[in-house]
Amino acid sequence: MTKLRFHHLEPLRFPLVNRLYKSYYPAGKAKKDEIIWVGDNEKGIICVVRFKQFENIQLLTGMLVHPEFREQGLAKNLLAATKTQINCKPCYCFAFRELIPLYSNANFHLVDKIELPEVLSNRLIRYISSGKDLVAMRYEA
Fold first, then answer.
1. In this predicted structure, what is the pLDDT of residue 141?
2. Are the C-beta atoms of 6 and 78 separated by less than 8 Å?
3. Tally of domains in the chain
4. Phi, psi of 27 (to 5 degrees)
5. What is the pLDDT of residue 82?
6. Which of 25, 65, 84, 97 is deepest in the core (most CB within 10 A)?
7. Measured in whole angstroms, how far is the alpha carbon of residue 31 from the centre of its chain?
8. Range 108-115, long-range pairs (CB < 8 A, 24+ positions)
9. What is the rounded CA–CA span in Å between residue 15 and residue 25?
10. 37: buried, middle or exposed (CB in 10 Å: 19+, 13-18, 0-12)?
11. What does the DSSP assignment read for 31-72?
12. Which DSSP symbol is given to 3?
């Protein structure tokens, strides 16, 4: 695989991200008010992560690595590439349990849902009640 370039998504390429989500993570859908980072090469977008902005916090969401490129450290590299974004204001994520080690290695720590800002705790409760096995995590430098 050729070297990936990690960067903010150019607005013109927005439909390509949603095509990737539609193919491999139908519950995910990029929105124009989110900050979107991608990893790509000459073949196209290989991985993506979004940052949903709230007044004083942000939610890292929708991380996806194309199935052909999983287990190669791309999610870890994408998280490292987005450090400036992660550090700009308090950052949370809702992780599937099997991904706790990935996020822990990127300095996200488990947090009880009662410690979440209300806007996030309501969202997490909704996701869990729909059957998703998620945990809340917060970035700590």
1. 87
2. yes
3. 1
4. -75, -20
5. 97
6. 65
7. 13
8. 108/137, 108/138, 108/139, 108/140, 109/137, 109/138, 109/139, 109/140, 110/135, 110/136, 110/137, 111/136, 111/137, 111/138, 112/136
9. 15
10. buried
11. -TTSEEEEEEETTEEEEEEEEEE-SS-EEEEEEEE-GGGTTS
12. P
User: d(Cα 45, Cα 3) in Å, to the nearest integer?
Assistant: 12
Length of the chain: 141
| Domain membership of residue 120 as a residue range | 5-139
Q: Half-sphere exposure of 76 toward its Cβ, with a 13 Å CA cutoff?
A: 9
Indicate which CATH number applies to the domain containing 119: 3.40.630.30
How does pLDDT run across 64-93, given as a tens digit for each residue?
999 999 999 999 999 999 999 999 999 999
Phi, psi of 60 (to 5 degrees): -75, 125
65's tokens: 């690595």
Q: What is the pLDDT of residues 5-40, one digit of tens each?
A: 999 999 889 999 999 999 999 888 999 899 999 999
Classify residue 120 by burial, with Cβ atoms within 10 Å: 0-12, 13-18, 19+. buried
